[in-house]
């Protein structure tokens, strides 16, 4: 019996080593990213429309880029959403900051005012859209902070209306029953349908080509947002992948991973025009590339100071922002 258990553990460790390497996905903190994608998917089901995840918008005032978790766009309204995957006992201080105790870090933490942060993100996004020619109705964007973590506990229950706590989040129902969109400004309601459709088409088109974080989808339904840096591995493999550049490639999907002989991954690489100013040039092309599954993707997660390496055998797909 013990021999069977030991053999099973060895096989499991070999499996983990093959698919994830020494710094495998199970050791990486992906829960914050997973929470963002989970909230975005549920918002689309609850409210309809389109959720844009992981925007990285230039801020002209600071010369830096600001991360926006989600922009939700539906008919007549749009919202900027900040997802706070906080746990433990959380209270609000007089200056708007949050104090969290008993969370994942097991120590007392003080978080910047999430409502003030997301409000600033609205201003940055509005400026960016105006620079790209979108005439936004006044007050068109609303903003919310959503807390999807079931281990969140609020103290004193003094959270502002812009915050949707976990208890509120799980009770929301699909439209039209849901009162979630009580923040709707109705900015375009009552206008001509053709004007509304034209506006939303323009808004969705620009958000679809806005700067975003690069995205990794890992096996096990895990996500990582950040910046792709390079490939590491055997020279013949990195040479075969040399054409994968941000200026040309938008998406890479792992079609097949083989564990027999020399383990290889077959990748489908999708090319399409990256310059949003080239109207009408939306055709794409693709090719297949086969390299060793041990080839690594060097990636810098946006929520970490450390650069990570992920084996191709652990990756379902990778999307690169323009």
TrEMBL record:
Pfam families xref list: NERD
Leader sequence segment: none
Superkingdom: Eukaryota
Positions of the NERD domain: 31-148
Membrane-crossing residue ranges in chain numbering: none
Protein name per UniProt: NERD domain-containing protein
């Amino acid at each position: 019996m013990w021999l069977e258990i030991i053999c099973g553990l060895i096989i499991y460790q070999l499996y983990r080593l093959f698919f994830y390497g020494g710094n495998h996905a199970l050791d990486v903190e992906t829960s914050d990213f997973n929470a963002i994608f989970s909230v975005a998917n549920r918002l689309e089901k609850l409210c309809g429309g389109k959720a844009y995840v992981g925007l990285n918008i230039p801020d002209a005032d600071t010369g830096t880029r600001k991360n926006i978790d989600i922009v939700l766009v539906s008919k007549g309204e749009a919202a900027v959403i900040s997802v706070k995957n906080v746990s433990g006992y959380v209270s609000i201080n007089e200056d708007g900051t949050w104090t969290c105790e008993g969370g994942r870090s097991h120590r007392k933490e003080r978080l910047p005012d999430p409502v003030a942060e997301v409000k600033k993100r609205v201003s940055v996004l509005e400026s960016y859209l105006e620079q790209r020619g979108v005439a936004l109705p006044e007050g068109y964007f609303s903003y919310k902070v959503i807390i999807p973590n079931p281990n969140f506990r609020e103290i004193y229950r003094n959270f502002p209306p812009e915050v949707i706590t976990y208890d509120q989040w799980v009770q929301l129902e699909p439209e039209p029953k849901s009162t979630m969109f009580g923040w709707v400004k109705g900015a375009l309601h009552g206008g001509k349908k053709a004007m509304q459709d034209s506006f939303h088409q323009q808004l969705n088109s620009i958000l679809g080509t806005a700067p975003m974080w690069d995205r990794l989808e890992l096996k096990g339904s895990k996500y990582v947002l950040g910046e792709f840096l390079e490939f590491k591995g055997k020279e013949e493999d990195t040479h075969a992948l040399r054409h994968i550049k941000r200026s040309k490639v938008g998406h890479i999907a792992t079609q097949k991973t083989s564990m027999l002989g020399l383990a290889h991954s077959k990748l489908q690489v999708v090319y399409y025009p990256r310059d949003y100013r080239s109207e009408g040039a939306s055709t794409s092309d693709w090719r297949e590339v086969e390299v060793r599954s041990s080839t690594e993707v060097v990636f810098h997660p946006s929520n970490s100071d450390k650069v990570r390496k992920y084996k191709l055998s652990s990756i379902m797909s990778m999307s690169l922002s323009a």
